[in-house]
Amino acid sequence: MTKRQPLRTHWTLFALGLSLLAAACGGGGQGELVALAAERDMSPEDAARAIKSFVPPGKLDDYILFASGGHSGQVFAVGLPSMRLLKSIAVFTPESWQGYGYGADWSENAIAGGSIGNETLKWGDTHHPALSETDGDYDGRWLYINDRANGRIAMIDLTDFRTKQVVQIPNLMTSHGGVFATPDTRYVHVSSKVPAPKGWNPKVGTSVKIEDHLEHYPDLYRGYSTWLRIDQQNGRILLDESFQIELPPYTQDLADAGKGPSYGWGFMNSYNSEMATGGVNYGRPPLEAGASEKDFDFLHMVNWKKAEEAVAAGKAEVVNGIKVVSLDTAIAEGILFLAPEPRSPHGVDVAPNGSYITVAGKLDPRVTVYSIEKIEEAIAKQDFEGKDRYGIPILKFDSVVAGQVEVGAGPLHTQYDHEGYGYTSLFLESAVAKWSLGPPYHEGDKAFKLVDKIPVHYNIGHLATAHGDTMKPHGNYLVALNKWSIDRFTNVGPLHPQNLQLIDLTGEKMALLRDAPIGVGEPHYAQIISTKVLKPLRVYELGTDPGIMAKSDSAIAGGAESRIERRDGVVEVWMSVIRSQFNPDVIAAKKGDKVIIHLSNVEQTPDATHGFAVPTKNVNVSLDAGETTTVEFVVDTPGSYSFYCTEFCSALHLEMQGWIVVEG
Ligand code: K7E
Ligand code: CUA
Q1: In which band, very low, low, confident or very high, does the pLDDT at 66 lie, cut at 50, 70 and 90?
Q2: Alpha carbon of 518 to those of 235, 334, 500: distances in Å?
Q3: How far, in Å, CA of 648 to CA of 162, rounded?
Q4: Which ligand has its closest atom nearest to the C-alpha of 253?
Q5: Is the peptide bond preceding residue 440 cis, with omega within 30 degrees of 0?
Q6: Beta pairing partners, 338
Q7: Ligand nearest to the CA of 605
Q8: Is 627 near ligand 2, meaning CB less than 6 Å away?
Q9: What predicted TM-score, i.e. pTM, was given to this entire model?
Q10: Does position 643 have pLDDT exceeding 90, yes or no?
């Protein structure tokens, strides 16, 4: 808590405010409210905070915050300003409530798309969600998110809040830079986190000797900037029309898309241009020391439009199934440039007007703001300070930087409002700094100034403002995604929940409104979208296969069409599902049979979801109203198995049950 002001004056003012409120509402009872707040040991600020962030029963939130779930592998949809968790969306990790990864074909297909090597991975580390955009603003169609542990990306369809596609991006062992969408969602971008040996392929492996790893890292390892082309009809990633740009092994970090005047560019940080490999047990400096030796790392500027032209002109080579623009081609074609950036930066965030690019350095107390106009001018004039060891031109720091602002210790990530202010998270200081951009937002000595700061609890990573990385930010709410909560919540054991803090940006000073524990994962980044933009379905049209969002060939309209067909070793069932009955509800099979069940939820009532679960099997399907899904499993042990509906759907939900009788 911050300082409390003298109680009496404050309560008098508060009472005055409440009496105005009461008058406006045409009712009395202000004394009662004051007494209630006092009884609950709330200060006037607390009561004001409660009112500002409370969404009354039955009323709806104005925004949804989509937060990554870290190594829970999921995405969370949280309402704003209430901070109520509305849904955990299964992405990389199976999730039985939604029947994701427990037999339903659409989910098995999605997960299988991200299989690595010879193994289907059952987890991921979601970091950076990216909402699709049209004309530089969120359009509410799709959400993309990367798996930091692997080079994977997933697409969530926001018409039904389900993951529809997971893709293993070739040549990427890990990922971090992005996900961001271009302002038209022509591409979404993901770059490597830790560089991988050139040609890295998890299916066949790569031969690496320990001496090579330690001595020849700069020659053998590479990073990649990946531009994934998006199908504008269904949001799917089209790997055949995507491409990568080969990068030096500088350990590229976060990335962002150009927009407006910087449309066509992508920006990426790096934090280990020293190319340290670690190896304390080989007499080397530990990675964190080796990677922090130099005063500058490199901001990477990638011209994806030129890269697209080079690919169209046949100047890319297919490596592991994706077109790759080599480092030499990228240099020759004017696709890749570097600019010095202060030590070990983390976040890079393009301002709403697309002119400014803000970089925050973990080991530098300033944010450094680059200008696209200066960058393009410097490139045109070949105003280079030299080249790196790979031959990439390095722009002069002073030629491309528009301003620097001292914001505090450990700046990481920046978001924006609609008035030309940046909000930067300060990890070491546990605070959010508000500072001003330059012209046209702020002129003269008003530009590039720290204007406000608010403490957060504790160790903030990312932050998010409403529509805060679009060209049209809303400037009302900010959410701080804090790594530690320490003493903010009732102790639930040594592992504490992450603390998401809601901050009001509408006053002269930033004001903390609410703490929200997220007890189901470690959110990194989040994006906040107005619920006005989202158009999710209430029910599916009858027979819809969520995998294709079209009528399934296996759909049936009701129990009259239900049937069982048998052939060699296969029992195929067309089953209708409705309150409170499966039809058919008794299925005879022989030991060793493969059972294929096409389930059709033939309801059109919102929220009339049914489940289908089989004891002793990893089968648990969730069927929303109108949905048709197929599940397959082998019955290898004789006996009678009572399948049942897992959703408490009706008064006779418990009776919603059936039998599979397996004859031995
Ligand atoms: Cu800063 Cu992976 Cu975005 Cu975490 S990263 S905080
Ligand atoms: Cu259907 Cu319970």
Answers
A1: very high
A2: 29, 45, 7
A3: 21
A4: 1
A5: yes
A6: 300, 394
A7: 2
A8: no
A9: 0.94
A10: yes
